[in-house]
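User: Show me an example of a complex going from sequences to structure tokens.

Assistant: Sure. Here are the input components:
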Amino acid sequence: MKFLRDLLDKQKPLFEKGGKLESLYYAFEAGETFMFSPKHTTGIKGAQVKDAIDLKRMMITVVIAMIPCLLFGIYNTGHQHLLATGGTAGLWEDFGDKTWIGVKLVLPIIIVAYAAGGIVEAIFAVVRKHPINEGFLVTGMLIPLVVPATTPLWQVALATVFAVVIAKEVFGGTGMNVLNVAMTARAFLYFAYPAQISGDQVWTYLGDKMPVDGFSGATALSVVYNAGVEGTQTAVEALASHNTVLGSGLYEFTNLFMGWIPGSIGETSTLMALVGALILIGTGVASWKIIFSGFAGAYIMGFVMNLFAVNEYMALPPEYHWVMGGLAFGIVFMATDPVSASQTETGKWIYGLLIGFLTVIIRVTNPAYPEGIMLAVLFMNVFAPLIDYYVVKANKTRRLQRATV
Amino acid sequence: MSKIVKLKKGFDINMVGKAKQELADFAPAQTFAIKPTDFIGLQRPKVLVNEGDTVKAGTPILIDKALDQVIYAAPVSGKIVEIKRGDRRKLLEIKILSDATITHEQLGQVDIVSLDRDALAAKLAASGTWPNIIQRPFGIVANPADTPKSIFISAFDTHPLAPDYAFALQGQEKYLQAGIEALAKLTSGKVHLNVDGSKAVPTVFSNLKGAQVNKFSGPHPAGNVGVQIHHLDPINKGEIAWTVTPYGVAQIGKFILEGIYDASKVIAVTGSELTKAAYVKTYMGASVSTFVKGNLNSGHVRVISGNVLTGEKIALEGFLGFYHNQITVIPEGDYYEFMGWAKPTTRLSYHRALGLLSFLTPKKEFVMDSNARGEERAFVQTGVFESVTPMDILPVYLLKAIMAEDFDEIEELGIYEIVEEDLALCEFVDVSKHPVQELVRKGIELIQYS
């Protein structure tokens, strides 16, 4: 790698103070530190040695944790396409075709998200003279995973730009943002272009093919919601009897858990989200408290709904809330964003629990929003500082009381 | 009542280069220096000697005009060879070339029983031993006019490669005892002697009387006196406690019993880059070059006065800091590393993020260099500082308050309870590479001088 180092050393004076391309220093610096970790040493006073971790490594760990969801999402995109258009029967039949269809749809979305966001990052870094934020490594992967494979690429680009600018850069970049950037992107799409990200038509890619007769593209959440409105059968029965034309048990618990269902690219599989959770908790990058209390909160609220059930949706067994929609993905990857989440250890319990509560409340009681996790996370992002405020205040009070006793 | 405190939070940094429990026969140091910069809070230093003067061990050579009853004394007898000043005539070093045999100023023995508290404090302040007494809050040299609510002595050091006090202070029992008796007279409360609860109390400490013995166990920073105070008798706004290291207690005791200022101490010479890591008997402020030169097994090194968490980088010919009891020599880390942020590494890390494998080998001793391992960023990860700080303190909120210079918050979040070393581990584990200890000092100064 010496030639690369020599090349960089040769170009470096151009970008340094007084060089011709001085204004592009942070762009150069981002590339340089990506290839070579810098040779800075610790200061004269203070810690003389440092932990081997840095922010890049931490962020890339999150990206790796998302890979199971991504790979599953790619295959599932192809699988749902062939299933809906009558091209396949078995789960593992036409493996190559399904993967190829998935890659063709998903890869461009990822590239667009990274490119659009990366350009915005770079512009801000150069203009505002700050280093490029590693946080984008994660955001650029999260955004593609929370949109349907049918989302137009220009919408992906627009949402990414909007989110990076409005949710992050205006606050000063990664570490300063109030809202989760990827959730903001999704919320933007949801409110700006609802036709492409809600309803029954967008979750399965059909392409130019016709779906099989009797096909319905409704998600499990809307099936359950309708069961609640109609009240002719229980929610579980409604799920079991849905879309039997595609084979029985599409929306049965196990299948929902596995994720062989229509939905946004990366969020259908609870199993894969849990694999990601294992990686995040095992590496200590995400807070297990938020993940655990998030799931617990959803279950508890689902159970409370059961107790006061006036319709079939409220009577839905609470564990179904874990496997429908994007709850698992949202809790594991979005709620745990350390910057926008609660930052005190006690606060994390409350924050996670309330996300679980709110998600189920929004799902069950609000006809306008079939899925609650997105709004629950954003809502709690806004409230996290308030939770922390009281936790910090309790700490101060303990100190004060000690003094007066 | 003595207390037993078991701490869970923290992190031990195991490094290669532990000092062997023997006194090495390094050539004795020739020059010694008093560095006014070692004494934090020393506001207006005034040198009392000129270049060319001869001094004895214990001769006053420096005072702080803001606290002029406390003298800073020459550690050895000899000749003042240089008074080094930096920019704007800032006083940096007063160098002494030592005599072959050290002669002491005869200050007279002290009868603790017959003296009252203030007279004893005045004697100590004039003896040269006083700067061993540190005031909390702020971590500055104590004011003899104050009466602290308690005095704390941590009888063990959990810093990386720290000297084993049981070895370094062996034979000093009677001085330690006399020192504790003197300190007991200075406080309105108790003298706390905090020992390592994870092993048997070494004989040098086990027979001491007049102090409350508390046991602390757990990973670093269990040995930090600030952490211990937090669990025994935390410092609130307006209160004052004092801390002294066992080295300082012995020095005070020797002055009481023999009437001399004896600045000799056994220090640990440690670090992976040394051929021989061992203890050596020398004096405070010793030039480290005779211990290091000729003892190196590599060329590109960093010499640190103190330990790797709280120490200070010094030159190969530099001097041991007043409060430091060890030197550490590690490789200098000024190298680039290709894809260094992504490669799996066995380098020591508190974290377990992708490719950080050191958690698999918790007992391993690591060679650590001075590379900064990344660049400074905004705070991102949460919960880690808390997990290495065994105190009811929220380090991130405190540090943010300091950055924002929010005086009320700084105070309410516990600045009175900490000094730099108490959050040094945060600086080590920080993903975003903040200069935590520098910030802590900034916060202390904001409050201290407000």
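The lines above are the inputs; the final block is the predicted structure for all two components together. Chain A has 16 helices and one strand.
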